[in-house]
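Two folds, back to back.
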Amino acid sequence: MQTPVTAPRQAVAMEPRTPAVSLQDVVKRFAPVRRGADAVVALDGVSLEVAPGEIVAVVGPSGCGKTTLLELVCGLTDADAGSVQAAPAALMAQSDLLLPWASALDNAALALRVAGESREAGRERAGALLQDFGIAGFEHARPRELSGGMRQRVAFARTLLAGRPLLCLDEPFASLDALTRQEMQSWLAGALSRDPRSVLLVTHDVEEALVLGDRVVVLSPRPGRVVATLGVDAPRPRRRTDPELVALRERVFEELRT
């Protein structure tokens, strides 16, 4: 079950200028996959910050520790070295993980039910958000009756309704076809402009990172290290063909190649 994750161990009182996320020289190792082998170092000396209200996208090759980074921020695993501080976070995993027997409305309201709200109050709040998200008329549909893009909107509504100041998004559109993915990226940019949150997004899609992010952090192959941080100053809404984004895309790919 995909439920919003709070990390009390790492949660800090957020002052206006306190970063929503602060990682300093973080190292994460995993046990060896076979006897006699060395431990697997997933992240090695990673430092990054997410300012309040900022969207930071993290890109890098497969296996470089992007998902592990989100797990550290959400308190699902501990660092072996370095420090991790983060605001209370809600995690949206790669799969929408909607409950197949529940309606779109009840799936969206799940975070509210977990928090103790009544079914009626949760449905009322979730219904208003689903209407804003373009799901009006499908509130009582089961996940199998929804398109991929609609399922992701329901999952994102559930993540927002958790009420956490920090959203951790793990490849949220990876399972969608190319056209739907572009549509969902534009939709997500609009949703975040209406309801700003601090966001840490990990993705394999460089263009997605540039369309959505205020900054893009590039990780090396495993063990993941920060090899570049690029600011994205292009005005919103952004298009993939914007000259500034095209130039930044080439810079990101150059960093990934080297």
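---
second:
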Amino acid sequence: MTEAQSASKRLHGRNLLLVTVALGVLLNPLNSSMISVALARIQQDFHLTFTTASWLISSYYLASAISQPVMGKIADVVGRKVVFIVGLLLVALASVLAPFAPTFGWLIAARLIQSVGSGALYPAGMGIVRHRITEKQAQALGFLAVFASGAAAFGPSIGGLVMDWGDWPAIFWVNIPFIIASVTMSLFVLPQDSKTARVRRNGDTPQGQGPQRQPSLGKILGQLDLFGITLFAIAVILSLVFLMTISTHLMLWVLPIAMVLILAFAWWELRQTYPFLDLRMLARNMPLTWVLIQFVTVNIIFYSVFFGIPTYLQDVRHFGPSATGLIMLSVAGFSVVVSPITGRWVEKTGSSRPPLLLAGFCLTVGSALFLFLKTDSPLWWLVINLSILGLSNGFNNVGLQTALFRVSPREVISTASGLFQMSRYLGTILSTVLLSIMFGNTLTTAELSHLGGLLAVLGLVIIWMSWRLPKSS
């Protein structure tokens, strides 16, 4: 085999691996964006208020916030390929069950299964990419971001179109073709996790000795910190209950309980050998901590727009699901174009700081434009507004992911990727809380303008955090 043929074969294998991972990773943004146009119909079908319906989003992302780091740890120990395939199968199960949910509670249960499955795909997939692709990683991330951004971009349009055919249950059926393709390719394309690699990632091979046996299931479960996970979940749920009742019937008594549980969680985590949230690691690696905080803030802004605007378009401007989906293309559509350009930009400059500064500027300007929005404002004005916000998403997708890779040790990259996605979901949860406080049971253009002003302030915070990043790698 000539050198050119060998290089061509390696490139073909690299591309197949990226497509396989991308088909799984895109399921989360696809379902996140489709639910945004289906939320109004689900709210009507189950006779819910906006605050109650938002639990469909909050519970999903809370489960994702928990499952991402957990699945990242399991992937580091058990093997990334098997965790990736199991995640796909869980999403398939949820997609079959959800359309037949008889009550809102059953629908939430199906979405929780979906969240656990999708929670396995990102850290396992990113771990595979991080270890198998060592050259031009930023461009590889840009390639994956095109799939993820494309899923987010076309998700509302796909959701709107299939809802015309099969109402809101159809947004779950549409996952099946992607899952079949990804499972089939995963079996043949993804590299096998050798027993030696799994043992070494778990730290069980002493220096100078041969590989030891694979860790037992009991040992793996013993590293999951189930008590810490329980404390975290209850503390977040109680915090959500308190925050979501601010605009209605304030449940003040919930706040001190939530605060005690948060302090208990921190106390417990600092004393664990295998904590759910490694506070010591975050304290030692402050660059990683700042990347995670910035990602939380970015997602508060992005998902406040992503979940708030479709409801506004349908309830206030009286657009249908299909038209709403097409309008929402302006939010995520630009990410498809900007993400690969950002990948090459980061590769050339050696720093994610410039695109992240530009992303913060777009978030600030796009949010501030809501202050000038009126109920009778022309559609083109709203599209321009949303397009500016969409540009920021393309810069942030690659910029922050690259920053994460550069501040995370290779041996914990799956765990760090899980924390990264956990930050995304915490930001998303906080966005639903913000929407519940701002909108309550009604939504008007004035309230949307107030939301824009608050998001513009957060945009300035993001600019400051981006400025703190190093100018070069």
